[in-house]
Amino acid sequence: MDIALPRAKGVWNVVRTVVRVDGMACGMCEAHVSDAVRRALPVKKVSASHRKGEAEILSEGPLDERQLREVIGATGYAVVSVSAEPYERKGFSLFRR
User: Fold this and answer.
1) Distance of CA 53 to CAs 9, 10, 60, Å?
2) What does the alpha-carbon distance between residue 7 and residue 53 come to, in Å, rounded to a whole number?
3) pLDDT for residue 72
4) Pairing of strands 54-59, 15-22
5) Strand, coil or helix: what is 30?
């Protein structure tokens, strides 16, 4: 099941997927989750945090939720929830008020 998001003229924008992960307790746990996701899915960036209990994934299109759950589950951690939204890069501007 893909996480459906709107397209802009047939091209996917960057998608931010947040996965709530139960069981991460340290930096090595974060590395296991991040490495597994990077190896199995077409992602641009993965950042896991045991303190937040989540992994943030940036990709060029929606990810297959079932596959994402399987990949993280295979590392020994439990996926609690998965949510996705369009990702807007936050730029720096001196002229913004």
Assistant:
1) 35, 34, 24
2) 29
3) 97
4) antiparallel
5) helix
